[in-house]
Amino acid sequence: MKDIFFNRKQIHQQQTRIEEDLNLEGCQPTTFPHTLSRRTSPSLQWLILLLIIFTSAISIFIHGKKISYFFRPIWDNPPRPFTRIPHFYAENVSMDHLCRLHGWSLRSEPRRVFDAILFSNELDILEIRWRELNPYVYRFIIVESNTTFTGIPKPLFFSDNRQRFAFAGSKIVYSMYPGQVGSNLNPFDLESGQRVAVNTLFQNAGVSTGDLLIMSDTDEVPSPHTVRLLQWCDGLPPTMHLELKHYMYSFEFPVDFSSWRATAHIVQPETHYRHSRQSDLLLADAGWHCSFCLRHIKDIVFKMTAYSHADRVRKANFLNHSRIQRIICNGDDLFDMLPEEYSFQELIKKMGSIPRSTSAVHLPSALIQDADRFRFLLPGGCFRELG
Ligand SMILES: *[C@@H]1O[C@H](CO)[C@@H](O)[C@H](O)[C@H]1NC(C)=O
Ligand SMILES: *[C@@H]1O[C@H](CO)[C@@H](O)[C@H](O)[C@H]1NC(C)=O
Ligand SMILES: *[C@@H]1O[C@H](CO)[C@@H](O)[C@H](O)[C@H]1NC(C)=O
Prior knowledge:
This protein is α/β, with parallel strands linked by helices and 387 residues long. It contains twelve helices and 14 strands.
């Protein structure tokens, strides 16, 4: 932001200088040698004007995204507000009691649970997710593509590391989505192509009416007690969004509760895979969303160039490894962007680094059980592996 203000100030100074020039000319027309002032001043003015236009154009070009984000509260409307469903949970409280606290009732047997995700390269978060949900899930549906959303060929990270997920065994229903290669493809089209592929997988996996189906990105992890609640209670709404606690880089940097895209469905004949707004209902505090929670710096570089907002990589040095390491340990923004907020109050509150947390309580249990292997996701572990 400093740059913008500096530029504005510069522009203002230059403008006043021009005004002074004009005044000078107007006030003292006779004392100056006419010919000289006529010949130099107008061309000088034009030069200055051109300079101003040029520097403004350059600064808008460089900082355009930032300027427009700063003024988002003016040009953008917040999404339609959600109706939050209060969420009750404590250890060792009976399921019957929990269902009734939500206004629901206990089922005689649990629903079958299907967990459907699009996978890119988040191997560690995938392991944590599946270990967390394994006791409750009937089928893990996973789709990965051999290209990125931005049209670059990519290794099949899941397929290449499948032995790591042997613990989930025959529950895994996997499909490779053949992507398109090219630079002028629309990332959001490729993304929606993959989402269509997930729908076909639903049928192969045996998803049927009345089952519980969770749809989310790999890094949007519902908590186990949330899944248990939804599989054991009757009377819940057919489609709910899940409000997840949003973390950046690791569980050391909690951002807010802004994550809402994950959904839980009681399957109806018309249920389809989507990753957008599908309901006004949002179940409070239902899990974790850990963005850029990747082990190696090179994984982070890959994600920065591969995902749908790759246009945010505006400068080559954004991908510099030492810059990324520094940003992770500070809790700063990888794309040097402002927070996406819809009011100036929220925007200003969230500007600057994410405050560091020292709590590793109420996190996925695999993280704590294997704290050594997952040190990079825990408080105090911001240093990433090289290579
Ligand atoms: C959990 O509840 C059971 C009885 O339902 C009780 O025996 C047990 O001690 C409780 N455990 C904890 C940790 O409170
Ligand atoms: C992706 O897979 C499809 C089907 O196997 C193949 O035809 C295509 O060449 C692959 N693309 C890349 C970039 O590997
Ligand atoms: C990355 O940035 C650091 C300074 O922050 C610089 O010393 C280093 O040469 C850069 N690396 C590359 C590959 O540009």
